[in-house]
Design a protein that fits this description.
Radius of gyration: 24 Å
Order of helices and strands: HHEEEHHHHHHHEEEEHHHEEEHEEEEHH
Helix content: 40-55%
Strand content: 5-15%
Shape: globular
Structural class: alpha+beta
Number of helices: 15
Largest sheet: 5 strands, antiparallel
Number of strands: 14
Length: 448
């Protein structure tokens, strides 16, 4: 066994979770729960199979969907979910406190994490010590893609983040990590319909006259259905969170925090001074900041508020970018109902259209940075649409998915504006100084 493997394994026992006394369940303070139980199945099947028709024209075949009984999750009380004591906003200590009451499940997941990652970290360490890392790093990154995919959506999304950090990894490694895909198989529509009813507090057919029998899009946190409001006949997009998303991600964020602390300490101990250059990047801080943003993506109520804010600001100041309306009266923490728009994702547009939309996108994001001091934090090609058909009159570009939004601190806004000016003027020395002031680069960065 290699020196690094022994060091990694020696810490295994020290990372166990010690149970705390269980929290007492809070009384229900709000009638709308985040989950019910098995009792709805017969009614759901009778309702859906009877008269709810999909937008494709066929009846929704709920009877063929697998039976699903999600665990009771929580009721909302202010900033906290009272039954499980999971925070509404990311709070690592609160997550640890909750998962310490389910130590067996957490320890099992921790064991799986170490089983998958220790051999890979040991292999990287051996390659580094033998002087072969530069030659083998792309192959090792390819193996890492498989490991992160096996660990699930939390780790896949972290890998996608790291793939964009040119200050941390080489172009070859970035290309390999860029192959990570967050798309997953959809969960059953019966389970989705149950979530919708639980969030609405009324039968689904009271609100929607039509809904697609299967999702039009599925991802790691949620899937989307196309539906029609019974009250107005308007087409809407219904984004429904996966029933197990809150539990799975809160648990894996605890595992991730432990893993980062564990591996950084172990690698620093083994590599010693050879890791000095890595100290310029606060990896633990980087992961913590990312975890806070990722956890916020689980709150669709917050996403709806952000989308409404961006819609108000952008529509009042430009006719070149559109943001769909959110129907707050039908939205909640686990469901977001917004205006349906027809469009083509930027990834599927022609090169000519992409070139034109890039100019619009640059204008829109400069407005966000300089005027709003906040910006859409996940503008990948799937979240940028070229509007088509009747919706084309609303503007050439449409922004969707406001789960991740970043705010610029007040003290940094003037520096961000200066950095943009320096970039436009190709004034690289001053741009470098601005990046140092913004703490994007360390103070000991080499200057020309």
């Amino acid at each position: 066994m290699s020196h690094l493997s022994e060091a990694l394994l020696s810490g295994f026992g020290s990372m166990g979770v010690h149970p705390l006394p269980p929290h007492q369940q809070s009384r229900r303070l709000k009638s709308r729960t985040l989950c019910s139980g098995r009792t709805q199945h017969s009614r759901l099947r009778a309702n859906y199979a009877g008269d709810l028709r999909g937008l494709t024209g066929s009846k929704v075949q709920v009877s063929r969907a697998r039976r699903y009984s999600p665990p009771c999750v929580a009721t909302i009380q202010g900033e906290y979910l009272t039954l499980q004591h999971l925070p509404r906003r990311y709070d690592h200590k609160a997550l640890e406190a909750y998962w310490s009451t389910r130590s067996q499940e957490l320890n099992s997941r921790w064991g799986t994490f170490l089983q998958l990652t220790i051999p890979h970290i040991a292999k990287v360490g051996t390659s580094f010590s033998m002087g072969n890392l530069e030659r083998e790093e792309v192959a090792l990154a390819g193996e890492l893609v498989g490991i992160l995919t096996s660990l699930g959506p939390t780790f896949v999304k972290l890998g996608q983040l790291i793939s964009s950090r040119a200050d941390l990894i080489s172009p070859g490694v970035a290309e390999e990590l860029g192959k990570l895909q967050s798309d997953v198989a959809p969960f059953s529509s019966l389970a989705a319909y149950e979530v919708i009813e639980e969030e609405l507090g009324v039968p689904l057919t009271d609100v929607f006259s039509e809904i697609t029998p299967s999702p039009v899009a599925a991802a790691s946190l949620a899937q989307v259905y196309k539906a029609r409001l019974r009250s107005t006949g308007q087409l809407v997009a219904v984004k429904v969170q996966r029933p197990d998303a809150l539990n799975t991600i809160s648990r894996d964020l605890c595992i991730l925090k432990r893993g980062v602390d564990y591996y950084l300490g172990t690698i620093q101990m083994v590599a010693g001074g050879t890791m000095a250059s890595a100290a310029d990047t606060d990896m633990a801080g980087l992961v913590e900041a990312w975890a806070a943003g990722f956890y916020d993506e689980l709150d669709f109520e917050l996403e709806g508020q952000r989308q409404t804010h961006f819609r108000q600001e952008l529509l009042a100041n430009t006719s070149r970018c559109y943001v769909p309306e959110v129907f707050q009266e039908y939205s909640s923490r686990r469901m977001l109902v917004s205006e349906w728009v027809d469009g083509v994702r930027l990834a599927n547009c022609t090169p000519e259209d992409i070139q034109q939309l890039t100019e619009v996108g640059a204008e829109v994001f400069l407005f966000q940075l300089l005027h709003m001091a906040s910006f859409h934090g996940d503008p990948h090609p799937g979240n940028l649409l070229q509007l088509t058909g009747a919706d084309a009159a609303k503007g050439p570009l449409c922004l969707i998915d406001f789960g991740l939004v970043a705010n610029i601190p007040l003290e940094d806004r003037a520096t961000v504006a200066c950095a943009i000016v320096h970039l436009a003027d190709c004034n690289w020395p001053m741009l470098l100084e601005a990046f140092i002031d913004l703490k994007i680069l360390p103070t000991n960065t080499d200057r020309p």
